[in-house]
What we know:
The structure holds two protein chains of two kinds. Chain A is mainly alpha-helical.
Amino acid sequence: MSTPVVDVITFPAVITITTVTFGGLSGALHASKRGLDPIGVFTISLLCAVGGGIIRDVLLQAGVPTFLVNPQFLGLAAVAAVIGFFLAGLVKLVVPLITVVDTLLIGSWVLLGAEKALAYHLGFSAAILLGVITATGGGLVRDLLCGEVPAMVKPGEWYGFISIIAALFFAGLVRLGLPIGVAEASTMVLAALLRIGAMRGRWHTPTAYDLWGNLESRMATGVEESIRKRDETLRRNERVLNDASRD
Amino acid sequence: MGSLLSNVDTSLTHAVSTTHVHMANTIEVLPTSLPSWTQLAAVGVGAISGAAFAARRGFDVVGVLVLSVATGLGGLLLRDTLLQRGTSIVLTDGRYLIIAAIAAVIGFFFAGLVDRLEPVVVVLDALALGFLAAAGANAALAIQLPPTAAVFIGAATASGGLVLRDLLAGVAPGIMRPGVLIAAAAFIGSLVFTVLVVYTGVPRGQAQVIVVLVVFAIRVLAVRLQWRTRPARDLTDRIWDRWIKMPKQNPLPIEIAPEPPPPAVSTFSPPPDWDDTSTFLRPPGLRYGSDEGGRGAS
């Protein structure tokens, strides 16, 4: 575990920029729909774009978060905020596009976190955790700041669940010793396929299954059933005996 | 980091930290630091307003203490967490927590007084906002972050405490909702500080004074003139109509036919409950009893 698995982050910058841009756009739309003011729209847009990355960098304790070192991220978020603030109608027209891009990029969010963890000589469990946090952190902070229950913890869309699966898959592939590019590509494909399947098949994330309670109630109904059957048998026997005695 | 620490101006460091020893990796020891009493005062003001907020909502002792500390120290904690330069100043310098605790006690016992002195609190809050914006932007510039990042850090330092307070109180952060100018004032202050320091070379102490005055002016004017931030406005249709869609040009002026006179309308209209004498004889708008009963079958 001490040898670095990933020397440098080989993730293409184009995909990073696209991911962040579309995250910012969706955040700006989300915020302007809720009637926030300009500062609010910018904040939500920025946090949707780089919120997961901020949490990742703070957890990694590896220097100033990326978005502060590269001011292009702040600029992207500002542009997204302006568009979301004044041109919400235009953004709504391209919601299908945003959905498609979002679908294709869910894997890259995971990779942005997992790869950085591996590059900082952390283990695979840390890579999985940071991948999931990077993928879901932006939405989590967004919902907290909008005063809502985070969509991540509510039953509904497969998003956080897919990111968990993708992070596990990526860590497994790297552990198996596949080239990093192959692992990246297949993780992104897997995440996109899962997301498409979840959206087309209307899969819902399962809520807690009360295994013990179910067993208990089943056992309880079993006992009740047996008591009822026993009583019925006794009554019938009694009746038979009574009839016999009357005769 | 090494290069930053190598040129620490020792005299200034001693002037800043006469009463306590700083760790070498805190932001305060950088040669460009501002006087620490400004941050301490800002923390105290924020903590008192946080404590009054909690007391107004009927929180218990722990709630008042936590909200007071969060409002006072939240911004600086956020700044130091984002800048990742060792332990935060609010932990290495014990005075911050003591001030926040004293503010919590004041807020717990004198919340009514704090509420009654609202103009004073608004003035103090405005001053604290400027101090914090300058402190945040200054710290970001001191570790040589780009100016845009410094502007962001300054605004986040000034408004982070309020966001944290609202989150802990379980309400959506009001600072991002349409309303009074707080975050915008902090943003402008941070922008002014960064521009002054980076592009005009004004000494940081003077820049801080200017920033505090600017933020104070914005806040006071916003209160006096009732400036309010607005929610998002969708200009897509307007832009489309005005600039993108080509206006239809009529080659010949079309004579517009005069409007036909309105058809004669009988002025008589039966009252709504024509067949119900009980309501018909009463003046309109005076109905007794509820809807069921007394009305006609219609």
